[in-house]
Amino acid sequence: MTGEPHFGKVTLIGIGLIGSSIARALRQLPLAGTVVAADRSEEVIQRVRELGFADEATTDMGAAVADADLVIACVPVGAMGAVAEAIGPHLKAGAIVSDVGSTKGSVVAQMQQHLPAGVHFIPAHPVAGTEHSGPDSGFPELFHGRWCILTPPEGEDAAAVEKLAAFWQALGSKIEVMSPEHHDLVLAITSHVPHLIAYNIVGTASDLEQVTEGEVIKFSAGGFRDFTRIAASDPTMWRDVFLHNKTAVLEVLGRFTEDLIALQRNIRWGEGQELFDLFTRTRAIRRSIIDQRQDTADPDFGRGRK
Ligand code: NAP
């Protein structure tokens, strides 16, 4: 894709990890004439002013998007409809409206109805993040080498799609285009269900902690602590993800539960070859993630020895 990535005025709504990472990247790259940061929280806006990564910062959504050429909603997915309703009447014709939400079908259903004709609506999901949140947690390199998935509605203006794709490429992302339904299924298995498993195992261990008296934390390097990083992710964001990708998550969870019961059976009946074969297959998946530069091959995820 080869669009021209520069926009006159870019408005970011919701200045947490993702919104503040985009804003910080725009400080370094010639992609926007003016960057406006909008958030519902006066405290966040005050912090944005202190950090100085936007030209303007406001809690007034209408004023923030007036004359904007690109508007990106960076709020939890459960808030996308309210944001679209607030900004809809203030958008200029020809503007591109996008988002960064981790689910896509629900975001389309919530936002599209509030957007006026003449505005290009191109949902997006940068598959990049950390377990941190808020305006202090962002960094400009967050999107480097990561995929950004675009889910443009059928018939959307190709030039607008290319322009948004070029914008994300300039932020360091690689682009993939797919339907919202396909996105939601792929992300259910690669992100949403893994997060649910981490939340569940850390919850179970925390209940057991009362029995083991401190040993769960003490011996956490045995594997548990890697789940705790994922399970420390923002509760609001993840509550919304599960409520808004219900169908695909329940579908994948059904398959996962069946496979878990098969493993339970392998262990009970001493079926070592089945266990060995699965663990060999999963080791090869780790290898391909490293080969595709989506993680480091360093032992212990690159943690230094201390
Ligand atoms: P975050 O750090 O929690 O920031 C979200 C910001 O949006 C907060 O400042 C929040 O304010 C504000 N907000 C909430 N509702 C709002 C509303 N109705 N109007 C205006 N502002 C509102 O979240 P994040 O991690 O950047 O995630 C933002 C979006 O990116 C989510 O849709 C998420 O699914 C997606 N995403 C996240 C990741 C990740 O790893 N974190 C990766 C890819 C995509 P309050 O503090 O007042 O609630």
The CATH class label of the largest domain is Alpha Beta
Bound molecules: NADP nicotinamide-adenine-dinucleotide phosphate
Strand fraction equals 5-15%
Overall mean pLDDT score? 94
Query: Which fold name fills CATH's third level, the topology of the largest domain?
Result: Rossmann fold
- Number of separate domains: 2
CATH level-four homologous superfamily name of the largest domain: NAD(P)-binding Rossmann-like Domain
Uncertain ranges? none
Number of helices: 12
- Find the count of extended strands (DSSP E, 2+ residues): 9
Task: Please specify the SSE layout and strand pairing.
Layout: E1 7-13, H1 17-28, E2 32-38, H2 42-51, E3 56-58, H3 61-65, E4 70-73, H4 80-87, E5 96-99, H5 105-111, E6 120-121, E7 124-126, E8 147-150, H6 158-170, E9 174-177, H7 180-212, H8 215-218, H9 224-230, H10 235-244, H11 246-268, H12 272-291
Parallel strand pairs: 1-2, 1-4, 2-3, 4-5, 5-6, 8-9
Antiparallel strand pairs: 7-8
Residues 13-19, 39-41, 44, 74-77, 79, 82-83, 100-102, 125-126, 129, 133-134, 234, 237, 241 line the site of NADP nicotinamide-adenine-dinucleotide phosphate.
